[in-house]
Amino acid sequence: MSDETQNEITPSVVSSEVRDFVRAHERRRRQFPRAALVGLLAGLLAVAFRYALDGADKLRDSLIALGHSYPAWGFLIPIAFGALGSGIGVFLVQRFAPEASGSGIPHLKAVLHRLRRMAWRRILLVKFCSGVFSIGGGLALGREGPTIQMGGAIGQMVSQWFKSTARERQTLIAAGAGAGLAAAFNAPLSGVIFVLEEVQRDFSPTVFTATFVACVIADVVARLLSGQLPAFHVDYHPLASLESLPVFLVLGLLAGVLGVAFNRALLASLRLFARAGHWPRGVTGAIVGAGVGWVGWFLPQALGSGHYLVEQTLAGQGTISFLLLFFALRFGLTMFSYGTGAAGGIFAPLLVLGAQIGLLTGLVAGHFFPSAAPEPTMFAVVGMAAYFTAIVRAPLTGIVLIVEMTESYSLMLPLCVACFCAYAIADLLGDKPIYEALLERDLLRSQDVPKLESNLLLELLVQHGAPFENRRIGNLMLPAGCLIITVKRSMYSHVAEPGMALQAGDRITVVVSPQAAAAVALLREGVSNRFVHHTP
């Protein structure tokens, strides 16, 4: 090509890149106030949800105390309260919004992957009310998962208020999810990282900045209305000695094995309760709630999200036998509670179990190797992050979340060691991350296809080890109505051609017509090495 030809082409190429940059910058600027509004509303909703649950917990505790004033028949009070609350909570979900069951995070991931639609009005109302009835009734579930899903619903709501594009809507939904986590735990960085690492898996500047703005605003609102103290009080820990690292390594291994057990038991509980699908709505919740209420008659602190148990464990209270008993009890309660399909998450329950695993490890190690485990409570802190990592498979989120919740910055190295080992063991055992396993279960059971109102424009990143890697575009067997139009590789965009082989790191732009909506799941599965398998 001659110099004159290059001089003619170069300005147009540069001007095109400048226009693209300006458009992207304008989109980000337009998203900032919307993301701030999402953060404000998500923070207010998270605080309202927290206060409602606190009120329900106090009511439950007072009724249990009242029941003990009448030893002959008083035990019926917590049983009836648990049955009523859990029954109503499950009924609301089964009757009005099945997508609001459980934590709601798998549904949120499906929405962001264009596999589901979000009816935000229904989710906000049912999730809030069902969560208050179910968790307030005593089910061993957490408020954090529901807060994340409700935050995503707020993002959808705001996107409709301002007539956003499909991409802007997805960004606001992701930002709302992060804001929900940030407000629930007073942990803004964790909200950002959770979106980037687990929920959206999109590190584009627009997603990052919108999520960051929403998380910070939501955290500020939560702190203004409910205080600036961290989620859990932990005494200051000195730097862990290198001599203690092998013990943290063992803790990570133990957390990995027990994390796999948690995931498989949770899926088994869902299969068990699915067999009762022909029962009247809410009956399974009432039965489990009655059993939970009976447990509460003897051990009221074992019910609900378990915040008190975490505080107790982080303070080093409890013997080895006590911790073993409560671990088994809370493990079983969580499985049965989540199996009902009530609106409640697993964040808080797994933190309870992780803290108990950590303290148990610290106590045993301190007995045999006192110099390697001088303070067993530091192992309880690390145990929460390691167990979270083994179950969710999001180590960065686990580390940052626990640091923000406990302000235990001095434990950064032990946290990294334990979380790496927990992740490696869970992955080595072939266990799927819990939210992906739950999403796979939902997709395989529903067997439905997303409905598109118009042509859908998707941008997908080809991951290393994905089915599409090293395959030619013409050999992907995409259905009619699904067309890859551009492939961005490094800094350059290329028009897609049938003979072009996709590489890891390529960002492909795809157009999907409404008639080819089933191809959305095929595309998601093809570009990812971790995404769930979908049977159309």
UniProtKB/TrEMBL annotation:
<dbReference type="InterPro" id="IPR036721">
    <property type="entry name" value="RCK_C_sf"/>
</dbReference>
<feature type="transmembrane region" description="Helical">
    <location>
        <begin position="172"/>
        <end position="195"/>
    </location>
</feature>
<feature type="transmembrane region" description="Helical">
    <location>
        <begin position="207"/>
        <end position="225"/>
    </location>
</feature>
<dbReference type="GO" id="GO:0005886">
    <property type="term" value="C:plasma membrane"/>
</dbReference>
<feature type="transmembrane region" description="Helical">
    <location>
        <begin position="409"/>
        <end position="426"/>
    </location>
</feature>
<protein>
    <submittedName>
        <fullName>H(+)/Cl(-) exchange transporter ClcA</fullName>
    </submittedName>
</protein>
<feature type="transmembrane region" description="Helical">
    <location>
        <begin position="124"/>
        <end position="142"/>
    </location>
</feature>
<dbReference type="Pfam" id="PF00654">
    <property type="entry name" value="Voltage_CLC"/>
</dbReference>
<feature type="transmembrane region" description="Helical">
    <location>
        <begin position="319"/>
        <end position="339"/>
    </location>
</feature>
<dbReference type="Pfam" id="PF02080">
    <property type="entry name" value="TrkA_C"/>
</dbReference>
<dbReference type="GO" id="GO:0005247">
    <property type="term" value="F:voltage-gated chloride channel activity"/>
</dbReference>
<dbReference type="GO" id="GO:0006813">
    <property type="term" value="P:potassium ion transport"/>
</dbReference>
<feature type="transmembrane region" description="Helical">
    <location>
        <begin position="346"/>
        <end position="369"/>
    </location>
</feature>
<feature type="domain" description="RCK C-terminal">
    <location>
        <begin position="444"/>
        <end position="526"/>
    </location>
</feature>
<keyword id="KW-0812">Transmembrane</keyword>
<feature type="transmembrane region" description="Helical">
    <location>
        <begin position="35"/>
        <end position="53"/>
    </location>
</feature>
<feature type="transmembrane region" description="Helical">
    <location>
        <begin position="245"/>
        <end position="267"/>
    </location>
</feature>
<dbReference type="InterPro" id="IPR001807">
    <property type="entry name" value="ClC"/>
</dbReference>
<keyword id="KW-0868">Chloride</keyword>
<dbReference type="InterPro" id="IPR006037">
    <property type="entry name" value="RCK_C"/>
</dbReference>
<keyword id="KW-0406">Ion transport</keyword>
<feature type="transmembrane region" description="Helical">
    <location>
        <begin position="381"/>
        <end position="402"/>
    </location>
</feature>
<keyword id="KW-1133">Transmembrane helix</keyword>
<feature type="transmembrane region" description="Helical">
    <location>
        <begin position="279"/>
        <end position="299"/>
    </location>
</feature>
<feature type="transmembrane region" description="Helical">
    <location>
        <begin position="73"/>
        <end position="93"/>
    </location>
</feature>
<keyword id="KW-0472">Membrane</keyword>
<keyword id="KW-0813">Transport</keyword>
<dbReference type="GO" id="GO:0008324">
    <property type="term" value="F:monoatomic cation transmembrane transporter activity"/>
</dbReference>
<dbReference type="InterPro" id="IPR014743">
    <property type="entry name" value="Cl-channel_core"/>
</dbReference>
